[in-house]
Amino acid sequence: MKPLLPFFLLLFTAAHSLCAQTFKLTDKVFKEGDVYIVPQVYFDLAKWTLRPESEVSLNSVAEFLITNNHLKVEVSSHTDSRMGDACCLTYTGKRAEAVANYLISKGVSAERIVSKGYEYKIPIISDEEIAKLKTEEQKEEAHQKNRRIELKILKVEPRYFKLTDTVFNLWDVYIADKVYFEFDKWSLRDSSAKQLDSIADFLKRNVSLVIEIGTHCNFGDDDDYTLKLATNRSKAIKKYLTQKGVKSRFMKVVGYNDTKRPSPYSTMDEEQITEEEHMIAFQMGRRIELKILKTE
């Protein structure tokens, strides 16, 4: 029977694991740069062939990524510093690629996964810290911590909801695309009433939600004025919804200046961009979003 790790090493490795891992597969809210250390992923010795006992853990990761299809992730492989430089990059790169291919085979979109090998460049426990450990067993356990597969969140895309939905996640977004203002003002047009009334009804049905009303503007050379315009438009929407019976405390207002928002056509030659494409890019920076900040 393998002896239990000394209490000192348990504390030591746990602290480092907490620093390295920043989310769990059961989480609902994520940010770019979050890391999950994938447990129980095994390869044949000195190879990048996945062993069958890895499937349980990797199937959980695949299910997580299919459920959270708004995430783009990096699968990375890390080894310890005792492996020679000559084959280290190929070794870790191929193992990361093998994991990514397995996840794709389980239904995860290939467009949402990149793979990368990091050799031994990003250890959880440094060689200097390992050298201070007292026994060879402690040192080997520390090296094992450095040999790992990680899932890192590269990008969190917004998830969109409809006013007829009944289940929501934090940061879900609704685009209010039929709310209009007078040109260069924050006075609501009468034609906005239909959609705003639907939003009011939605919020009164879903009293557990706290939302952000965010208006994006992208015109004018005066950044301060553009931000003021966007903020006042959000305030106008909140005022309308409050008058329709929505509790003010469940609505936060914010304005966004999207004047410097990169155009999706910014890498193209100006002469190649059609007038319609210019209009699409312009409209992308002019929108009103409802974002869910809290569910209870």
Q: How would you explain this protein's 3D organization?
A:
This protein has 296 residues and is of the alpha/beta class. The protein has two domains: 7-156, 60s Ribosomal Protein L30, Chain: A (2-Layer Sandwich), CATH 3.30.1330.60; 173-294, OmpA-like domain (60s Ribosomal Protein L30, Chain: A). The chain has eight helices and eight strands; from the N terminus they run H-E-H-E-H-E-H-H-E-E-H-E-H-E-H-E. The strands form two sheets. A four-stranded mixed sheet has the order 1-4-2-3. Strands 5-8-6-7 form a four-stranded mixed sheet. Helix 2 (55-67) packs across helix 3 and helix 6 (193-205) crosses helix 7.
Number of strands: 8
Q: Helix count?
A: 8
Structural class: alpha/beta
| Main β-sheet description | 4 strands, mixed
Percent of residues in helices comes to: 25-40%
The CATH architecture category of the largest domain equals 2-Layer Sandwich
Query: Structurally, how many domains make up the residues?
Result: 2
- What is the string of helix and strand elements? HEHEHEHHEEHEHEHE
Features:
single chain, four-stranded mixed beta sheet, 296 residues, 60s Ribosomal Protein L30, Chain: A, 8 helices, 36% helix, alpha/beta, 2 domains
Quick recap of the structure?
This protein has 296 residues and is α/β, with parallel strands linked by helices. Helix content is 36%, strand content 18%.
Task: Draw up the topology in text.
Layout: H1 7-20, E1 35-38, H2 55-67, E2 71-78, H3 85-105, E3 113-117, H4 127-131, H5 136-146, E4 148-156, E5 173-175, H6 193-205, E6 210-217, H7 223-243, E7 251-257, H8 275-284, E8 287-294
Parallel strand pairs: 2-3, 6-7
Antiparallel strand pairs: 1-4, 2-4, 5-8, 6-8
